[in-house]
Design brief:
Layout (H helix, E strand, L loop, with lengths): L7 H9 L5 H14 L5 E2 L2 E2 L11 H8 L4 E6 L28 E2 L8 E7 L2 H7 L8 E8 L4 H9 L2 E2 L2 E2 L4 E5 L20 E8 L6 H8 L4 E9 L2 E2 L8 E4 L2 E3 L1 H7 L6 E3 L1
Parallel strand pairs: 5-11
Antiparallel strand pairs: 1-2, 3-5, 3-13, 4-5, 6-10, 6-11, 7-8, 9-10, 11-12, 14-15
Length: 269
């Protein structure tokens, strides 16, 4: 049997061709590079046992030494998380918002959802942040139809079972309607005879249309879905269609040396 190819460039190419298994080899490389700033690396392999036998191409050296771009964008509803669309007529895409050239969406946000989308020009981060295996929490404000009972909230917190299996436990809270959030365009269709409520929901996984399926599973259909946070990044005043450049993550070991914290993961500079 051929040994797995650990060249990040090759893994990225495989991932872009739809080979999700390439992430199993790619993510440890990204974590190893981002989480260990004092570990010397060479083109022939790293110093750690985890890096032994791996090739460190320019993409990982860029993560290690250069500034790469990370964009926080407030995606409006009914916009695709891509720059082109072959549909007839074509649907609105990211190309209509003046985003910098060379960036790509790191992760997905449904066409009919709104809120925070991260974009970057670093392919390894596109793959990592967009992976369901990446452990950054994603936080949503969810307008639902109906009045959430304690039993429904408990089921959401414990993780309801969906058609593709049980979900991980989630953080869920009943909140007031967000005053800062303007009415949606197009407007939310509500039934005057049925109450509605807002939930704040945080997940650590990313299945297809997961939030909608979770709320439906407990009898609370989603009317409006707004993502307000991904890991350490938030909408923070961005209105729909606006974007700004944010500080990209740095390897956490630099923070460990000064704070004494041993958390594993990524955080912004």
């Amino acid at each position: 049997m051929q040994p797995p190819n650990h060249d990040v460039t090759v893994l990225l190419q495989q991932w872009r061709r739809g080979d999700e298994s390439a992430l199993d080899a790619l993510l440890p490389l990204v974590y190893d590079t981002l989480c260990h700033p004092t570990r010397p690396m060479s083109s022939g392999g790293g110093r750690s046992r985890a890096a032994k036998g791996r090739t460190w191409p320019k993409s990982l050296h860029r993560l290690d030494t250069l500034r790469y771009m990370l964009i926080a964008f407030h995606k409006p509803m009914n916009v695709l998380c891509q720059f082109t669309d072959r549909s007839l007529p074509p649907r609105p895409t990211l190309a209509g918002f003046g985003l910098p050239k060379g960036v790509y969406a790191a992760g997905r946000l449904d066409f009919d959802s709104e809120g925070l989308l991260l974009l970057t020009d670093e392919g390894a981060l596109v793959a990592a942040i967009g992976s369901p295996k990446f452990d950054w929490p994603k936080t949503y404000l969810v307008q639902v139809e109906g009045t959430p009972s304690e039993a429904a909230l408990r089921r959401l917190r414990e993780g309801p079972v969906l058609g593709d299996g049980p979900t991980r436990p989630a953080e869920v809270a009943l909140v007031d309607a967000p005053a800062w959030l303007p009415p949606r365009d197009p407007p939310v269709r509500v039934r005057q005879t049925v109450p509605e409520a807002w939930l704040r929901l945080t997940l650590r996984e990313g299945r297809n249309r997961q939030v909608r399926r979770m709320t439906a599973a407990v009898g609370l259909p989603t009317l409006r879905l707004v993502r307000i946070g991904i890991g350490p990044y938030t909408l923070d005043g961005l209105v729909a269609g606006q974007w700004r450049e944010v500080d990209p993550p740095v390897r956490l070991s630099a923070a460990r040396a000064t704070s004494g914290r041993g958390d594993r993961g990524l955080r912004p500079r």
